[in-house]
Amino acid sequence: MDLLTNKQYCLITYGCQMNSSDSERYAGQLEELGYTMTEDAELADVILMNTCCVRETAEDKVLGKIGEFKHLKARNNDLIIAVTGCMAQEWQERLFKRAPHLDLVIGTHNIHKLIDLIKEREEKRGHALATDMDGNVFYDIPTRRFQKFFAWVPIMNGCNKFCTYCIVPYVRGREVSRPLEEIVEEVRNLADEGYKEITLLGQNVNSYGLDFKDGTDFSALLYAVEEIDGIERVRYMTSHPKDMTFAMVDAIAQCSKVVTHLHLPVQSGSTELLKKMNRGYSAEHYLELIEYVREKIPDVALTTDLIVGFPGETEDMFQDTLKLLKKVRYDMAYTFIYSPRTGTPAATMGNQVPQEVKSDRLRRLMAVQNEISLACNKEMEGRDYEVIVEGPTKNDENHWFGRTSGNKMIIWENDGALAVGDTVPVHVDKGQTWVLKGHTLKQEAHIG
Ligand code: SAH
Ligand code: SF4
Ligand code: F3S
Questions:
Q1: pLDDT tens for residues 117-156?
Q2: How far is the CA of 392 from the centre of ligand 3 (A)?
Q3: Residue 298: CB partners within 8 Å, gap ≥ 6?
Q4: Is 389 found in the same domain as 351?
Q5: In this structure, are 194 and 79 located in the same domain?
Q6: Where in 52-158 does DSSP place strands (E)?
Q7: Residues facing 232 on adjacent strands
Q8: Same structural domain for residues 268 and 214?
Q9: Ligand 3 contact via 172 beta carbon (within 6 Å)
Q10: Whose CA is nearest to atom 1 of ligand 1?
Q11: Does residue 445 lie within any of the structural domains?
Q12: Does residue 142 form part of some domain?
């Protein structure tokens, strides 16, 4: 390729796995147009920020980044800057007012329009907005997968739950499932290309297929994907305690490829607060569900999401959350400070919790959870686990890592005997709060 005419794009992704998956379809379209990827925004002809607005901190990060790119545009007027994803959907034309140096604002139902919009911008400059929400999200468009053995597979878009704190239903729209056959076909193709692990993605995977009204549900999808040769592991995210049925737990337990990791966001341990959050379950029901999961999937690793400082949260309610944490003993928890989102019901509820109380609760919550995480990981010491090798760790070429079925990261010193994508047993020597240290048994055999 002639280097002088080589057009480059820089892609920056924020937010959840859904956004990571969407980014692969943005990258695919740019590569279809002849662009190659660069990590360096200074070298890029197109900068695309795929954004999140779930909390104010997420938005602030994006606004900061948009500001940083102003000088690049001033230096090179040919540069195309695009903002896509949930924050683009929320802000729409307000983003151009705030940052006139942007060229494109593309919402969550318009991913497939990037090719045409870039082509237009290559001809002539000017703002373009594509944020109509018609419920159609296209998946069958050029996709550049970022990993070789692990693949995201979106199974639905949107959310119908309207938890009172959450902006996602407003920026992703109503739930629309992808046809089961289309998903199975994609997973088959991935298997043929050598992919070993897939993650089925949706805001609430447990309500997958219900919109077809023909009996299709998440269990049916799991059974169908289970049959596909070459795929070793099936992950899924995110589950919702209201829609996750006992029958679904049975299906997960029966499908040998479906992982022993369940991410089941509880948000709070107080039934009263769960009601105000519109979560649709009680703390008691949640605990029953967990008990059933542990009975059916004995080795299960459990993770969750928790919010502190939701409007009206009292110290007693917060104590209920701590109690639930100690009862369930999660392997890991993502903990968030409640962030008011304009347009959501909770933003205007009375009894907003002061910032210093929120921060203090977060600190206490994390302290309790870290202790539990460490204890869970210590229990893994001395046991062997199968991992799929992901490669060197970020900071050290000689240390490689892989994940267990339970999604635990194990790090070992690499002697060159393993390749990325190998499935190998590892022995855990030391459990820490966030990671485990071990050695691979293949290496042991190799050395011996
Ligand atoms: N669909 C998933 C995840 C959605 S967003 C689910 O229902 O679990 C991921 C997490 O962000 C949520 O689980 C919640 O814990 C957190 N979150 C969402 N809105 C928030 C807000 N306004 N403030 C703080 N945390 C929030
Ligand atoms: Fe947001 Fe609730 Fe939907 Fe999850 S289930 S995306 S928290 S509204
Ligand atoms: Fe953020 Fe949108 Fe995901 S708001 S969490 S990127 S669905």
A1: 999 999 988 899 999 998 889 999 999 999 999 999 999 9
A2: 28
A3: none
A4: no
A5: no
A6: 80-85, 104-106, 128-130, 150-154, 156-157
A7: none
A8: yes
A9: yes
A10: 203
A11: no
A12: no
